[in-house]
Amino acid sequence: xxxxxxxxxxxxxxxxxxxxxxxxxxxxxxxxxxxxxxxxxxxxxxxxxxxxxxxxxxxxxxxxxxxxxxxxxxxxxxxxxxxxxxxxxxxxxxxxxxxxxxxxxxxxxxxxxxxxxxxxxxxxxxxxxxxxxxxxxxxxxxxxxxxxxxxxxxxxxxxxxxxxxxx
Length: 167
What we know:
Layout: E1 3-7, H1 15-32, H2 41-53, E2 58-63, E3 66-76, E4 79-87, H3 96-110, E5 116-117, H4 125-133, E6 155-159, E7 162-166
Parallel strand pairs: 4-5
Antiparallel strand pairs: 1-2, 2-3, 3-4, 6-7
Helix pairs in contact: 1-2
């Protein structure tokens, strides 16, 4: 398969390339909310540097020497969150996401943590199905709030027999 997973360090030379993946990830999340997100390469690099400065692990997957995906873990008190998880469209369905996810689980286990927590947009069916395939099936929390003044809610989500507006 020619797959290599690399831990990203502060002196990583291809931050601009990784930044492009981060920008694609952010744009995808914005699209789920019917919004547009325009982030510059510089802003992407700044975000990568932020996580590296906090010593949050970042791993990149390379297939045949091409950057194919990445993840970022965020340590928060007693929990570890899969903060970012993204595989380029042309590299999906090739085991890269599974390899990255396995590496994320190994990383937290090596640090003495038991669970990897995943925040997932409720319309992100692809990630929800991916997590189910990885054995994740416990819904931990639902956040409910009032609509903000002048907020335009454009979608609806069903949870069991309940329907909620979502933005």
